[in-house]
Amino acid sequence: MSRARNVVPRHKRHKRILKAAKGFVGGRRKLYRTASETVLRAQRYSFRDRRAFKREMRGLWIVRINAACKERGMQYSRFINGLLKANVKLDRKMLAAVAVDDPKTFDAIVETAKQALAK
User: Fold this and answer.
1) Mean per-residue pLDDT for 63-79?
2) In terms of DSSP H, where are the helices of the chain?
3) pLDDT (tens digit, 9 = 90+) per residue, 106-116?
4) Statement: residue 52 has pLDDT above 90
């Protein structure tokens, strides 16, 4: 009678892959080989898109700041330059949040940038 070897580790490995494939459709969820391929591809995409998400969010913040600056008669690049000269340490995420949620505070920040450029 032959010995069964590697049964428990193989079962654990298959369970791990099939658990990761939960929510997939059809054989991609039920069949080990197709589930394994699909899970590996999904992991590659998630790794890539975690970085892409950061880039997209920074672009969104810049668009929001630019729109708020244009409403106040200022270019985005001059605004950022004025903040650097005024030594204002707010990142783009915070500036975008202030521009959307608190226009009066953003007006004050724009005035600070304008004054720093005038000097």
Assistant:
1) 96
2) 7-20, 27-30, 32-71, 76-85, 92-101, 103-118
3) 999 999 999 99
4) yes
Q: How many Cβ atoms sit within 10 Å of the Cβ of residue 108?
A: 12
Could you identify the residue written with the tokens 């949040």? 97
**Torsion angle of C-alpha atoms 97, 103, 105, 106, degrees rounded to 10:** 70
Distance CA 29, CA 21 (A): 5
Q: What is the separation of C-alpha 24 from the centre of its chain, rounded to a whole number of angstroms?
A: 24
pTM above 0.90, yes or no: no
Largest Cα–Cα distance of the chain, in whole Å?
91
Report the C-alpha dihedral over residues 46, 39, 6, 11, rounded to 10 degrees. Answer: 110
